[in-house]
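Deviation from plan, reported transparently: BV8 complex.
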Amino acid sequence: MSDRLEDSRPDDALLTAARVVARSARLAVFTGAGVSKESGIATFRESETGLWARYDPLQLATPEAYREDPAFVWSWYEHRFGVAAAAEPNAGHRAIAELEKLLPGVVVITQNIDGLHQRAGSSRVIELHGTMHSFRCIDGRHRGFAWDDIAGQEEKPPRCPECGDYLRPEVVWFGEGLPPDALNAAQQLSARCDVMLVVGTSGVVYPAAAVPLIAREAGATVIDVNPEWDALAQNCDLFLRGPGGEVLPQLVAAVREHLDV
Ligand code: BV8
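Because the crystal trials were delayed, the predicted structure below was used instead.
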């Protein structure tokens, strides 16, 4: 699709997007922190509130920060784990999960580590940056510990039940490579999708941010959902301005009309 509908006539853009999505055979949904904003989880671009307001996630989500002060970085993840555990998937997450019921071959590629897509019902989710719901010892020999396996330990960070090393969340920190299987799957699905719906990402963190670019290069129609017109919006075919929790349910309702279901 060559011409890009500005968001000057939002209803037209939404109806066009719904027509494109309803006709898709291989829809990929690429999400960032913005899709969880309406679940009460701060995005990276906004500062947190309270204790963590004065810390920059880009400085905390690194192996260096963890080596320097493991207890401090662990406390940040413990705080975020608590926020995510108390959060509920919002209408945007649920709308994305509903697309999987309406269309064939829908896959979600997310940068988020909060697990809300899965809790909303999406069953094909690629977590490019790992998950905060699983832990491993720092040299990676023992993996897959759940929060319940370690919650009783007083020491921060808790110790690996197998080898006694400190544990860390199974997330990708800045400067660390992405899980090869997840990255390869995301790149292949992006190159093969016919429509990519991008929701709530500023598109600045690589290699994840290349996902929509791969899709567009391969000829997919790229639709961006974001309250702000930003770098990604300039490289998409359709821009739907607004929060995911509002736009996505409207989009799915219009897709249902197209599919007459
Ligand atoms: C790598 C997990 C190489 C952790 C994250 C120096 C050294 C090394 C690497 C680099 C370097 N300089 C640059 C790099 C590359 C670096 C990078 O891209 N840096 C950026 C800052 C320039 N990348 C890496 O380091 C990656 N690894 O390159 O390694 C390598 C290769 C092989 C072997 C060894 C090494 C790893 C990057 C992954 C980092 N981990 N998360 C954790 O979460 O704790 S990144 C984290 O930040 C998120 O996962 C996400 O990817 C990113 C935040 O971006 P967004 O999700 O887009 O969120 P953001 O807040 O930015 O934007 C929110 C958007 O939502 C906004 O547009 C807003 O308008 C919108 N919004 C707001 N409200 C709503 C909304 N949208 C919808 N609805 C709403 N209601």
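The two ends are 26 Å apart (CA to CA). We consider this an acceptable substitute for the interim report.
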